[in-house]
Amino acid sequence: MKRVLKVAGLTLVFGMVAFGANEKVYKLKMGLVANTSSNEYKAAEYLANNLKEKSNGQIVVELYPGAQLGDDRSMLEQLSAGVLDMGFAEIGRFNIFFPEAQVYSLPYVIQDFDHMKKATFDTEFGKNLQKKINDNLNIEILSQAYNGTRQTTTNRPINAIEDMKGLKLRVPKADANLEYAKNTGASPTPMAFSEVYLALQTNSVDGQENPLSAIRAQKFYEVQKYLAMTNHILNDQLYLISNSSMKKLPKNLQELVKQESELAAQYHTKLFVDEEAGLIDFFKEQGVTVTNPNLDPFRTAMQPFYEVYMKNNGKVGKAGLEEIIAVK
Protein backbone atom coordinates (compact mmCIF):
# COMPACT_ATOMS: atom_id res chain seq x y z
CA MET A 1 0.00 0.00 0.00
CA LYS A 2 1.25 3.49 -0.84
CA ARG A 3 -0.06 6.90 0.09
CA VAL A 4 0.76 9.89 -2.08
CA LEU A 5 0.40 13.45 -0.81
CA LYS A 6 1.43 16.76 -2.36
CA VAL A 7 3.09 19.45 -0.29
CA ALA A 8 4.48 22.70 -1.68
CA GLY A 9 4.49 21.26 -5.17
CA LEU A 10 6.35 18.12 -4.13
CA THR A 11 4.96 14.62 -4.30
CA LEU A 12 5.89 12.60 -1.24
CA VAL A 13 5.34 8.86 -1.19
CA PHE A 14 5.55 6.79 1.94
CA GLY A 15 4.06 3.72 3.47
CA MET A 16 4.30 -0.04 3.10
CA VAL A 17 5.27 -2.05 0.06
CA ALA A 18 4.91 -5.83 -0.29
CA PHE A 19 8.27 -7.57 0.12
CA GLY A 20 8.47 -11.31 -0.45
CA ALA A 21 5.62 -13.53 0.61
CA ASN A 22 5.15 -12.47 4.21
CA GLU A 23 7.36 -9.44 4.90
CA LYS A 24 6.71 -5.77 4.33
CA VAL A 25 9.11 -2.97 3.54
CA TYR A 26 8.49 0.30 5.35
CA LYS A 27 9.83 3.21 3.30
CA LEU A 28 10.64 6.30 5.34
CA LYS A 29 11.62 9.63 3.79
CA MET A 30 14.15 11.70 5.72
CA GLY A 31 14.77 15.32 4.78
CA LEU A 32 17.96 17.27 5.52
CA VAL A 33 19.01 20.86 4.92
CA ALA A 34 22.69 19.80 4.91
CA ASN A 35 24.36 18.54 1.75
CA THR A 36 26.01 15.19 1.05
CA SER A 37 29.48 16.30 2.20
CA SER A 38 28.27 17.22 5.68
CA ASN A 39 28.60 15.36 8.96
CA GLU A 40 24.81 15.48 9.23
CA TYR A 41 24.45 13.53 6.00
CA LYS A 42 27.09 11.00 7.07
CA ALA A 43 25.19 10.39 10.29
CA ALA A 44 21.83 10.11 8.50
CA GLU A 45 23.38 7.65 6.05
CA TYR A 46 24.77 5.67 9.00
CA LEU A 47 21.24 5.51 10.47
CA ALA A 48 19.70 4.45 7.15
CA ASN A 49 22.26 1.69 6.58
CA ASN A 50 21.92 0.30 10.10
CA LEU A 51 18.13 0.31 10.03
CA LYS A 52 18.09 -1.55 6.74
CA GLU A 53 20.60 -4.12 7.94
CA LYS A 54 19.16 -4.71 11.40
CA SER A 55 15.57 -4.87 10.17
CA ASN A 56 16.56 -7.43 7.53
CA GLY A 57 15.53 -5.00 4.83
CA GLN A 58 12.15 -4.11 6.30
CA ILE A 59 13.03 -0.44 6.95
CA VAL A 60 14.34 1.58 4.03
CA VAL A 61 15.20 5.20 4.81
CA GLU A 62 15.40 7.39 1.70
CA LEU A 63 17.56 10.48 2.25
CA TYR A 64 16.77 13.86 0.67
CA PRO A 65 19.72 16.19 1.47
CA GLY A 66 20.42 19.74 0.35
CA ALA A 67 16.99 21.11 1.31
CA GLN A 68 15.33 19.24 -1.57
CA LEU A 69 12.11 19.10 0.44
CA GLY A 70 12.29 22.69 1.70
CA ASP A 71 14.01 24.56 4.50
CA ASP A 72 14.03 23.39 8.11
CA ARG A 73 10.75 25.11 8.96
CA SER A 74 9.00 23.62 5.96
CA MET A 75 10.21 20.14 6.85
CA LEU A 76 9.05 20.53 10.46
CA GLU A 77 5.63 21.41 9.11
CA GLN A 78 5.72 18.36 6.83
CA LEU A 79 6.68 16.14 9.77
CA SER A 80 3.80 17.59 11.75
CA ALA A 81 1.38 16.88 8.89
CA GLY A 82 2.68 13.32 8.56
CA VAL A 83 3.79 13.72 4.95
CA LEU A 84 7.49 13.56 5.82
CA ASP A 85 8.65 10.70 7.99
CA MET A 86 11.98 11.74 9.53
CA GLY A 87 14.15 14.81 9.82
CA PHE A 88 16.54 16.98 11.82
CA ALA A 89 16.04 20.17 13.83
CA GLU A 90 17.67 22.08 16.67
CA ILE A 91 15.65 22.10 19.89
CA GLY A 92 15.73 25.91 19.86
CA ARG A 93 14.21 25.95 16.37
CA PHE A 94 10.89 24.89 17.88
CA ASN A 95 10.53 28.49 19.05
CA ILE A 96 8.63 29.10 15.80
CA PHE A 97 5.82 27.07 17.40
CA PHE A 98 6.58 27.51 21.12
CA PRO A 99 8.42 30.82 21.76
CA GLU A 100 9.84 29.66 25.10
CA ALA A 101 12.03 27.11 23.24
CA GLN A 102 14.29 30.03 22.28
CA VAL A 103 16.02 29.58 25.65
CA TYR A 104 18.16 26.82 24.11
CA SER A 105 19.74 29.22 21.64
CA LEU A 106 20.28 32.20 23.95
CA PRO A 107 24.00 33.00 23.70
CA TYR A 108 26.10 31.60 26.56
CA VAL A 109 23.20 29.87 28.35
CA ILE A 110 24.23 26.36 27.24
CA GLN A 111 27.78 25.59 28.37
CA ASP A 112 28.51 22.31 26.56
CA PHE A 113 26.74 19.34 24.98
CA ASP A 114 26.34 17.51 28.29
CA HIS A 115 24.56 20.59 29.61
CA MET A 116 22.39 20.69 26.46
CA LYS A 117 21.27 17.10 27.00
CA LYS A 118 20.43 17.76 30.64
CA ALA A 119 18.54 20.93 29.70
CA THR A 120 16.52 19.00 27.11
CA PHE A 121 15.80 15.73 28.90
CA ASP A 122 16.31 16.25 32.64
CA THR A 123 14.47 19.51 33.34
CA GLU A 124 10.73 19.92 33.81
CA PHE A 125 10.90 22.70 31.23
CA GLY A 126 12.47 20.35 28.68
CA LYS A 127 10.04 17.53 29.43
CA ASN A 128 7.06 19.87 29.07
CA LEU A 129 8.40 21.17 25.76
CA GLN A 130 8.84 17.63 24.44
CA LYS A 131 5.26 16.84 25.40
CA LYS A 132 4.02 19.92 23.53
CA ILE A 133 6.03 18.91 20.46
CA ASN A 134 4.59 15.40 20.63
CA ASP A 135 0.97 16.30 21.44
CA ASN A 136 0.57 19.47 19.40
CA LEU A 137 2.94 18.90 16.47
CA ASN A 138 2.67 15.13 16.07
CA ILE A 139 6.48 14.83 16.25
CA GLU A 140 8.56 12.53 18.46
CA ILE A 141 12.11 13.35 19.50
CA LEU A 142 14.18 10.18 19.09
CA SER A 143 17.63 11.39 20.12
CA GLN A 144 19.91 14.41 20.28
CA ALA A 145 23.36 14.96 18.76
CA TYR A 146 26.07 17.60 19.04
CA ASN A 147 26.28 19.75 15.92
CA GLY A 148 29.13 22.14 16.64
CA THR A 149 29.67 25.38 18.57
CA ARG A 150 29.54 28.73 16.83
CA GLN A 151 32.75 30.79 16.63
CA THR A 152 33.56 34.12 14.99
CA THR A 153 35.87 34.80 12.01
CA THR A 154 36.89 38.34 11.12
CA ASN A 155 39.23 40.47 9.07
CA ARG A 156 40.83 41.86 12.24
CA PRO A 157 41.78 40.21 15.56
CA ILE A 158 39.22 39.91 18.35
CA ASN A 159 41.16 39.88 21.63
CA ALA A 160 38.40 41.38 23.77
CA ILE A 161 34.75 42.37 23.49
CA GLU A 162 35.82 45.94 22.72
CA ASP A 163 37.23 44.68 19.41
CA MET A 164 33.70 43.72 18.33
CA LYS A 165 32.59 47.36 18.24
CA GLY A 166 31.47 48.46 14.78
CA LEU A 167 32.23 45.08 13.21
CA LYS A 168 29.89 44.33 10.30
CA LEU A 169 29.04 40.76 11.25
CA ARG A 170 27.08 38.47 8.93
CA VAL A 171 24.47 36.52 10.87
CA PRO A 172 21.46 34.42 9.85
CA LYS A 173 17.99 35.88 10.35
CA ALA A 174 17.61 34.44 13.84
CA ASP A 175 17.12 36.47 16.99
CA ALA A 176 19.86 34.73 18.97
CA ASN A 177 22.52 35.44 16.35
CA LEU A 178 21.31 38.98 15.73
CA GLU A 179 21.37 39.73 19.45
CA TYR A 180 24.82 38.18 19.87
CA ALA A 181 26.14 40.66 17.31
CA LYS A 182 24.18 43.66 18.58
CA ASN A 183 24.89 43.17 22.29
CA THR A 184 28.63 42.71 21.77
CA GLY A 185 28.79 46.02 19.88
CA ALA A 186 28.93 44.63 16.36
CA SER A 187 26.62 45.63 13.52
CA PRO A 188 24.47 42.57 12.64
CA THR A 189 24.17 42.04 8.90
CA PRO A 190 21.70 39.31 7.89
CA MET A 191 22.60 37.61 4.64
CA ALA A 192 21.92 34.35 2.83
CA PHE A 193 24.52 31.69 3.61
CA SER A 194 25.31 31.25 -0.09
CA GLU A 195 26.41 34.90 -0.32
CA VAL A 196 28.79 34.92 2.65
CA TYR A 197 32.06 33.88 0.99
CA LEU A 198 31.93 36.67 -1.60
CA ALA A 199 30.86 39.22 1.00
CA LEU A 200 33.86 38.30 3.15
CA GLN A 201 36.18 38.31 0.15
CA THR A 202 35.10 41.81 -0.88
CA ASN A 203 34.93 43.11 2.70
CA SER A 204 31.24 43.87 2.30
CA VAL A 205 31.10 42.41 5.79
CA ASP A 206 33.94 42.16 8.31
CA GLY A 207 33.13 38.75 9.70
CA GLN A 208 30.71 35.90 10.23
CA GLU A 209 29.92 33.29 12.89
CA ASN A 210 29.49 29.54 12.40
CA PRO A 211 30.70 26.23 13.82
CA LEU A 212 34.27 25.29 12.93
CA SER A 213 33.09 22.53 10.59
CA ALA A 214 31.09 25.02 8.51
CA ILE A 215 34.02 27.47 8.44
CA ARG A 216 36.17 24.74 6.94
CA ALA A 217 33.53 23.35 4.59
CA GLN A 218 32.79 26.81 3.16
CA LYS A 219 36.51 27.70 3.04
CA PHE A 220 35.96 30.96 4.91
CA TYR A 221 39.56 30.64 6.12
CA GLU A 222 40.65 31.60 2.59
CA VAL A 223 39.15 35.08 3.00
CA GLN A 224 39.23 35.57 6.81
CA LYS A 225 42.54 35.41 8.62
CA TYR A 226 41.32 35.78 12.21
CA LEU A 227 39.29 33.30 14.26
CA ALA A 228 38.00 34.20 17.72
CA MET A 229 36.86 31.34 19.94
CA THR A 230 33.70 33.06 21.14
CA ASN A 231 31.76 29.85 21.87
CA HIS A 232 28.54 31.83 21.85
CA ILE A 233 25.90 29.31 20.72
CA LEU A 234 26.04 25.53 20.92
CA ASN A 235 24.17 23.80 18.10
CA ASP A 236 22.41 20.50 18.69
CA GLN A 237 20.60 18.28 16.20
CA LEU A 238 17.47 16.35 17.13
CA TYR A 239 16.55 13.15 15.32
CA LEU A 240 12.81 13.44 14.68
CA ILE A 241 10.04 11.19 13.42
CA SER A 242 6.41 11.94 12.66
CA ASN A 243 4.08 10.16 15.08
CA SER A 244 1.98 9.22 12.06
CA SER A 245 4.95 7.42 10.52
CA MET A 246 6.01 5.75 13.75
CA LYS A 247 2.54 4.30 14.28
CA LYS A 248 2.73 2.53 10.92
CA LEU A 249 5.62 0.43 12.18
CA PRO A 250 5.20 -2.78 14.20
CA LYS A 251 6.31 -2.46 17.84
CA ASN A 252 9.60 -4.29 17.27
CA LEU A 253 10.54 -1.93 14.43
CA GLN A 254 9.51 1.10 16.48
CA GLU A 255 11.98 0.01 19.15
CA LEU A 256 14.65 -0.54 16.52
CA VAL A 257 14.16 2.99 15.15
CA LYS A 258 14.55 4.44 18.65
CA GLN A 259 17.63 2.34 19.38
CA GLU A 260 19.38 3.09 16.10
CA SER A 261 18.54 6.80 16.27
CA GLU A 262 20.34 6.97 19.60
CA LEU A 263 23.38 5.18 18.17
CA ALA A 264 23.33 7.46 15.11
CA ALA A 265 23.24 10.51 17.39
CA GLN A 266 26.31 9.20 19.22
CA TYR A 267 28.09 8.70 15.89
CA HIS A 268 26.92 12.17 14.77
CA THR A 269 28.37 13.70 17.95
CA LYS A 270 31.68 11.86 17.51
CA LEU A 271 32.03 13.16 13.95
CA PHE A 272 31.79 16.75 15.17
CA VAL A 273 33.92 16.30 18.29
CA ASP A 274 36.70 14.53 16.40
CA GLU A 275 36.62 17.08 13.58
CA GLU A 276 36.70 20.09 15.91
CA ALA A 277 39.66 18.62 17.79
CA GLY A 278 41.86 18.98 14.73
CA LEU A 279 40.45 22.09 13.09
CA ILE A 280 42.28 24.71 15.16
CA ASP A 281 45.62 23.30 13.98
CA PHE A 282 44.25 23.10 10.43
CA PHE A 283 43.26 26.78 10.45
CA LYS A 284 46.63 27.81 11.89
CA GLU A 285 48.32 25.91 9.07
CA GLN A 286 46.25 27.99 6.64
CA GLY A 287 47.63 31.20 8.15
CA VAL A 288 44.68 31.96 10.43
CA THR A 289 45.41 33.67 13.76
CA VAL A 290 43.31 32.13 16.55
CA THR A 291 42.44 34.23 19.62
CA ASN A 292 40.74 33.31 22.90
CA PRO A 293 39.08 36.45 24.28
CA ASN A 294 37.83 36.54 27.87
CA LEU A 295 34.19 35.48 27.50
CA ASP A 296 32.88 36.86 30.80
CA PRO A 297 32.17 40.32 29.30
CA PHE A 298 30.45 38.62 26.34
CA ARG A 299 28.14 36.74 28.74
CA THR A 300 27.42 39.90 30.73
CA ALA A 301 26.56 41.75 27.51
CA MET A 302 23.75 39.23 26.81
CA GLN A 303 21.77 40.11 29.96
CA PRO A 304 19.45 42.57 28.15
CA PHE A 305 18.54 39.82 25.69
CA TYR A 306 17.78 37.43 28.57
CA GLU A 307 15.51 40.09 30.07
CA VAL A 308 13.63 40.43 26.79
CA TYR A 309 13.25 36.66 26.59
CA MET A 310 11.78 36.48 30.11
CA LYS A 311 9.49 39.41 29.47
CA ASN A 312 8.18 37.81 26.27
CA ASN A 313 7.70 34.37 27.84
CA GLY A 314 6.51 35.26 31.33
CA LYS A 315 6.72 32.83 34.22
CA VAL A 316 7.34 29.85 31.92
CA GLY A 317 10.36 31.51 30.33
CA LYS A 318 11.80 32.78 33.60
CA ALA A 319 11.41 29.41 35.33
CA GLY A 320 12.83 27.61 32.30
CA LEU A 321 15.90 29.84 32.06
CA GLU A 322 16.61 29.51 35.78
CA GLU A 323 16.14 25.72 35.70
CA ILE A 324 18.41 25.28 32.67
CA ILE A 325 21.17 27.44 34.17
CA ALA A 326 20.94 25.47 37.43
CA VAL A 327 21.03 22.00 35.86
CA LYS A 328 24.51 22.43 34.39
TrEMBL record:
Binding site for N-acetyl-beta-neuraminate: 90, 150, 170, 210
Main location: other
Cellular localisation: Cell envelope
Stored Pfam families: DctP
InterPro entries attached to this UniProt entry: DctP_fam, TRAP_DctP, TRAP_DctP_sf
Gene Ontology biological process terms in this record: transmembrane transport
Domain of life according to the entry: Bacteria
Keywords, in A-Z order: Signal, Transport
Gene Ontology CC: outer membrane-bounded periplasmic space
UniProt-listed PANTHER family: PTHR33376, SIALIC ACID-BINDING PERIPLASMIC PROTEIN SIAP
Family that this chain belongs to: Belongs to the bacterial solute-binding protein 7 family.
Protein name: Sialic acid-binding periplasmic protein SiaP
Source organism: Cetobacterium somerae ATCC BAA-474
Taxonomic lineage of the native organism: Bacteria, Fusobacteriati, Fusobacteriota, Fusobacteriia, Fusobacteriales
